[in-house]
Design a protein that fits this description.
The complex is a heterodimer of chains A (about 600) and B (about 150).
Chain A (H helix, E strand, L loop, with lengths): L1 H29 L2 H23 L6 H14 L2 H10 L6 H20 L12 H29 L4 H26 L7 H21 L3 H7 L1 H16 L3 H16 L3 E6 L2 E6 L3 H9 L6 E5 L2 E6 L4 H4 L1 H69 L6 H29 L8 E4 H15 L4 E4 L4 E4 L1 H18 L6 E8 L7 E7 L32 H11 L3 E4 L7 E6 L24
Parallel strand pairs in A: 6-8
Antiparallel strand pairs in A: 1-2, 1-4, 3-4, 5-7, 8-9, 9-11, 10-11
Helix pairs in contact in A: 1-2, 1-8, 2-3, 2-4, 3-5, 4-5, 4-6, 5-6, 6-7, 7-8, 10-11, 10-14, 11-14, 14-15, 16-17, 17-18
Chain B lengths: L8 E7 L3 H12 L5 E7 L2 H9 L12 E4 L8 H9 L9 E5 L4 H9 L4 E4 L4 H18 L8
Parallel strand pairs in B: 1-2, 1-3, 3-4, 4-5
Helix pairs in contact in B: 1-5, 2-3
The chains are: A alpha+beta (about 600), B alpha/beta (about 150).
Chain lengths: ~600, ~150
C-alpha cells in the first residue's frame, strides 16, 4: 500500500512537472497572454511538486514553515490561473472571475495568517478545517467551471481539437473530484480515501498532459476523420472542371478541417464561394482587405479563413492541413480554369462550325433559286433568239451557259460539303474493288484515253454514297489534273503503317504531280492549282469533300511524297473495316440522302 | 358513280413566289405535249389557300385538278398550305406536287409527312424543267387517273 501510494505520488509529480515544463517552454516561445496564464497554472503546480520533493524529509522548522508558506501562496490560486487561461479565449463572467479571484486571495491570506500551517496536531482544529473547506470550495467551483468550459468549447470542433478540449475537461473534473476526496479526509496517509485521491490526481495529471501536449501518434489517430475528409476533398477537387465547382467543393471541407467560423474563396476579384461569412466580410474579401485569421494566396486570388477562437491554441497543426488544402485548391483551380478555357474554346468552335455549315447550306440553297431562273433565260435566249444574234453574241450566250453550269456544280458541291458528316447515315458494306471498277468505267467514258489499273482492294463499312463520292472525286481529279490525255491511274491498297489494323487506299496518276508546298492546300475549299480550263467542271471543292468524308469516318487523307505524278492516300481506320457494333442488318441504300 | 374520263383541259394551280420561276413553270406547263393545261397562279401561301377555298378575291373560281406548290413562300409557307389542304376531307383529293429547289432530305420528308402526292426538285435549265414537268403531267394524265376536282 505504501509502495503503491509512493509510486502514484511519484507518477503524479513527474507528470505535473512535465506539463509545467511544457507550459513554461511554450510561454517562453510564444510570450502571449494565454501561454502566460497556462504557465502560471502548471508552473505553480510544478513548483509545488519540486518544493514538496525537497521538503518531504525536513524536520519542522522556521525555514520549512517559510518555504511551505511561499509554496502555498504560489500553488493555491492555480484554479484561478486556469480560469484566466480559458477566459482569454471566451470571457468568463466578471462576477465569477471576481468570486474565484477573491476566494483565491482569501485562501492565500488565510494560509499566510494561520499560525502553524501543517502541524498534524492542529489538522483537526476548527480554523484548519475551515481553511481546508474554503480551499476545497474555491478549487472545486473553479475547476467545475473550467471543466464545463473545456467540454463546451469542444463542441463542433474538428476531432483532434475536440478530443483535446474534452480531455482537458475530464482532467479538470478528475482533479476537482480528487480535491473533494482529499478535503473530506485531510491528514490521512494510506487509507482508501488517500489512494482514490492519488489515483484521481494521477489520472488528472495524465489527462492534462495528454490534452495540452498530445504525443504525435495520438494526434495522428485523433486526426483520422479530417485526414479522410482531406483525401476525399483532394480527389473531388481534381475532378472539378470549373473554378466554381472547385470553390463549391473546397469551402465546406476547408471550414470543416478547422471548424472555421467562415471561409471565403476569392477568384479573379470575386467571392465565388463563401460559408459562414458576413456581408461585410465578403465585401472586404473581394476588395482584398479581409480581416481573416488565415489567408492563403492562390494564383487567381486568395482563400480567407476566419478560424474559431480555440484554433490558434489548439488547432495549430490543423492550420497546416488547411494550408495543404489551399495548395491543392490552387492547383485544382488552375487546372479547372484551363479546362474551362479549353471547353469554352471547343464549344465556341463547334458552334461556329455548325453555324458555318448551316450558313453554307442555306446560302447554297438560296443561290440555286436565281441560278435556275438565270439558266432558264439563257436557254430561252439560245433556243429562240439565237437567229437574231451574230457569232460573238452566240459565243457570249455559250459562255453564260457554261458559267451557269459551273455555278450549278459549285452550289451542288458546297451543299454536299456541308452535308458530309452533318447528315448522319448508316454505313454499309462497300466493296471498294467493285466500286473503283465501276467509277473507272464512268471516268473512262468521259476521258476515253485514261487507263486505270485496280489492285487488291478491301471492303469498307462506309455510307455508300460517301464512298462513291470519295472514289469518284479522287479518280476524276487524277483524270483531269494528270495533264496528258493518256493518264494512267493506279488504285491499290496497303496495310497502314501508322495505325494498326488500318488500311490505306492509294490513288496515283502519272501526271505533273502537286508541288510539296501545295500538298496541304489542295484539300481546302475552292483551292485550285490552275486556272479553270475550257470544259473543266472542277469546282475546287471535290478534295475538300474527300477530306471531310475521310475525317468523318475517323481516318485521314493526304498527298504522299511523290515527284512523278500525284498520289493521294486515304487511311481507313480499323473500325471501318469491320461490321460496326450496333448494326444488325447490312442495308445498302438509305432514304436520308439524295445523290448529287 | 363518278366518271373517270380524262378531262380535255386540266386546270393546274401554281403557287410560286419567284416571278422568274413562275414564268418558266407556266411556260413549261403550257408547252406540255399531249395535254391541254389551264394555269392559274398565286404568289403566296395565303392566296393559294384562298384560291382553293374559293374565298376573298377568288370567289367563284373553279377548283384546280392539281396543284404545283413551292415550299418557300411568304405569308403562309408551302408546308402549312399542304397540311391544311390535306387535312381537309373535301379538298384532300386534289393531287399536290411539291416543286422546290431544295433537295434537303428534311424538306422531302416533311412534305410527304404532310401529305404531298409527289415531290419534284426544280431543275436548272428550261429543257430540264420542261422534262420534269412533262413527266409529272404524263404520270397524272396518262399513267394514273385524276379525280374530278371537288365542286
Amino acid at each position: 500500500m505504501q509502495t503503491l501510494s509512493t509510486t502514484l505520488e511519484w507518477l503524479q509529480n513527474v507528470t505535473y512537472l512535465a506539463v509545467g515544463v511544457w507550459a513554461l517552454l511554450r510561454w517562453r516561445r510564444q510570450g502571449d497572454q494565454q501561454s502566460g496564464w497556462l504557465a502560471a497554472t502548471f508552473g505553480s503546480l510544478a513548483f509545488a511538486v519540486i518544493v514538496g520533493a525537497f521538503t518531504r524529509d525536513m524536520e519542522p522548522s522556521t525555514a520549512l514553515d517559510v518555504i511551505t508558506r511561499i509554496n502555498v501562496t504560489v500553488l493555491l490560486p492555480f484554479p484561478y490561473y486556469l480560469l484566466r487561461f480559458l477566459d482569454s479565449f471566451e470571457p468568463v463572467s466578471t462576477r465569477l472571475r471576481r468570486v474565484i479571484g477573491v476566494g483565491s486571495v482569501v485562501i492565500v491570506a488565510a494560509a499566510l495568517a494561520l499560525p502553524r500551517l501543517l502541524d498534524p496536531e492542529l489538522a483537526t482544529s476548527t480554523p484548519n478545517r475551515l481553511f481546508t473547506l474554503t480551499i476545497v470550495t474555491v478549487w472545486v467551483v473553479a475547476l467545475a467551471v473550467v471543466a464545463r468550459r473545456f467540454w463546451r468549447a469542444g463542441a463542433g470542433q474538428p476531432t483532434l481539437v475536440r478530443r483535446r478540449l474534452r480531455t482537458l475537461s475530464l482532467a479538470s473534473t478528475s482533479l476537482s473530484i480528487a480535491i473533494v476526496v482529499s478535503g473530506a479526509n485531510p491528514g490521512g496517509e494510506s487509507d482508501p480515501f488517500t489512494l482514490a485521491m492519488q489515483v484521481l490526481a494521477v489520472v488528472s495529471s495524465g489527462l492534462f498532459l495528454l490534452g495540452f501536449a498530445p504525443p504525435g501518434l495520438v494526434k495522428t489517430y485523433w486526426r483520422q476523420p479530417e485526414e479522410r475528409g482531406l483525401h476525399m476533398a483532394s480527389v473531388a477537387l481534381m475532378q472539378a472542371t470549373d473554378p466554381q465547382e472547385v470553390a463549391d467543393i473546397l469551402v465546406p471541407h476547408m471550414r470543416a478541417v478547422i471548424a472555421a467560423q467562415g471561409v471565403a474563396l476569392v477568384h479573379d476579384g470575386h467571392v465565388v464561394a463563401a460559408s459562414g461569412v458576413t456581408a461585410a466580410q465578403r465585401r472586404a474579401a473581394a476588395a482584398g482587405s479581409a480581416d481573416s485569421s488565415n489567408t492563403f494566396p492562390i494564383s487567381s486570388g486568395a482563400i480567407h479563413v476566419w478560424a474559431n477562437l480555440y484554433t490558434p491554441f489548439f488547432g495549430q497543426e490543423e492550420e497546416v492541413l488547411l494550408g495543404r488544402l489551399a495548395l491543392l485548391a490552387d492547383l485544382a483551380i488552375d487546372r479547372a480554369s484551363l479546362f474551362a478555357l479549353e471547353r469554352d474554346a471547343r464549344v465556341e468552335l463547334e458552334a461556329a462550325n455548325a453555324e458555318l455549315e448551316s450558313f453554307v447550306y442555306s446560302a447554297s440553297h438560296d443561290l440555286k433559286s436565281p441560278l435556275i431562273a438565270l439558266q432558264s433565260y439563257v436557254d430561252v435566249l439560245s433556243e429562240e433568239y439565237s437567229a437574231s444574234l451574230d457569232d460573238q453574241g452566240r459565243w457570249f450566250l455559250e459562255r453564260m451557259r457554261s458559267n451557269c453550269k459551273y455555278m450549278e456544280a459549285l452550289v451542288g458541291d458546297l451543299l454536299e460539303l456541308s452535308r458530309v458528316g452533318r447528315v448522319e447515315t448508316l454505313p454499309s458494306d462497300v466493296d471498294l474493288g467493285e466500286l473503283v471498277t465501276e467509277v473507272a468505267t464512268e471516268v473512262q467514258h468521259r476521258h476515253p484515253e485514261v487507263e486505270v489499273t485496280v489492285g487488291e482492294l478491301p471492303h469498307v463499312w462506309l455510307n455508300e454514297l460517301r464512298a462513291r463520292q470519295l472514289v469518284r472525286n479522287l479518280m476524276e481529279n487524277a483524270a483531269v489534273h494528270g495533264r496528258s490525255a493518256a493518264v494512267r491511274i493506279e488504285v491499290r491498297s496497303e496495310p497502314s503503317t501508322e495505325l494498326e489494323g488500318g488500311v490505306v487506299l492509294y490513288v496515283r496518276d502519272d501526271g505533273v504531280g502537286v508541288p510539296a508546298a501545295y500538298r496541304e492546300r489542295v484539300f481546302g475549299v475552292f483551292e485550285r492549282l490552275e486556272a479553270e480550263t475550257e470544259g473543266s467542271t472542277g469546282t475546287g471543292i471535290g478534295l475538300a469533300i474527300c477530306r471531310k468524308i475521310a475525317e468523318s469516318a475517323g481516318g485521314r487523307i493526304w498527298l504522299t511524297d511523290h515527284e512523278d505524278g500525284a498520289e493521294f492516300a486515304v487511311l481507313f481506320p480499323p473500325e471501318t473495316l469491320q461490321v460496326p457494333t450496333g448494326t444488325a442488318s447490312t442495308p445498302t441504300s438509305h432514304r436520308t440522302e439524295v445523290p448529287a | 358513280m363518278m366518271t373517270t374520263t380524262v378531262p380535255d383541259t386540266i386546270r393546274i394551280l401554281v403557287a410560286e413566289d419567284n416571278e422568274d420561276h413562275l414564268y418558266f413553270i407556266t411556260r413549261a406547263l403550257e408547252g406540255l405535249d399531249g395535254v391541254q393545261v389551264e394555269v392559274d397562279s398565286v404568289r403566296n401561301g395565303a392566296d393559294a389557300l384562298d384560291f382553293v377555298y374559293r374565298r376573298g378575291e377568288f370567289v367563284g373560281r373553279q377548283r384546280p385538278h392539281m396543284i404545283l406548290l413551292d415550299l418557300k413562300m411568304p405569308r403562309v409557307p408551302g408546308l402549312e398550305v399542304l397540311s391544311q389542304l390535306k387535312s381537309d376531307p373535301e379538298l384532300r383529293s386534289i393531287p399536290i406536287t411539291v416543286l422546290s429547289s431544295s433537295d434537303r432530305p428534311e424538306d422531302i420528308d416533311a412534305s410527304y409527312r404532310n401529305g404531298t402526292n409527289t415531290y419534284v426538285v426544280k431543275r436548272t435549265g428550261l429543257s430540264e424543267m420542261k422534262a420534269g414537268l412533262q413527266a409529272v403531267s404524263d404520270y397524272w394524265t396518262d399513267v394514273a387517273r385524276l379525280p374530278e376536282p371537288p365542286l
